[in-house]
Amino acid sequence: MIRLRPCKPADGSYLLKWLADERTVEFWRADRFTWPLTQGQLDTYFRDFEADPHAMAFTALDARGHPCGHFSFRNISWEENRAHMGFIVVDPSARGMGYGRRMVRQALRMAFGCLGFSAVTLGVYDCNEPARRCYEAEGFVRIDREGFRARRISRTDGEWEYFYMEAKA
Fold first, then answer.
1. Residue 31's pLDDT is what?
2. Which domain covers residue 161, as residue numbers?
3. Are 132 and 89 in contact (CB under 8 A)?
4. How much is the pTM?
5. Domain containing 59 — which CATH number?
């Protein structure tokens, strides 16, 4: 069982633990954060989300009520009934146990059922195979259109492709 609640600044301590290596931060950062991740960067992140009427962040809780994941909706278009899902991360100690899929499933239920969105997009790197498989299992498909074009990023460990996926209600 996964429950969702609005993210709180105190959840930053979990994010700092979960985003403890450079590769994980790179997968998560969306050009917003730098390595090493700091509490100051997260404080700014939480303030920005609180002030933005087109964004909201959530913490996923396991059956015991302990934080086990995080995600956000941003670039929300209330007129077009769509949002971009991002900053998706699961507690490393809970990976491989289905928490990511359950969190994404709950996020889509909220997006389509409660918030009335007709579509949700997200971005993922080709080398983040577990995340891509999770998103596909929950109904996301790869897209390539204006505003959602794949791009290549050169890294010290090779070239990564960043592409977009979309789920529809």
1. 78
2. 3-168
3. no
4. 0.95
5. 3.40.630.30
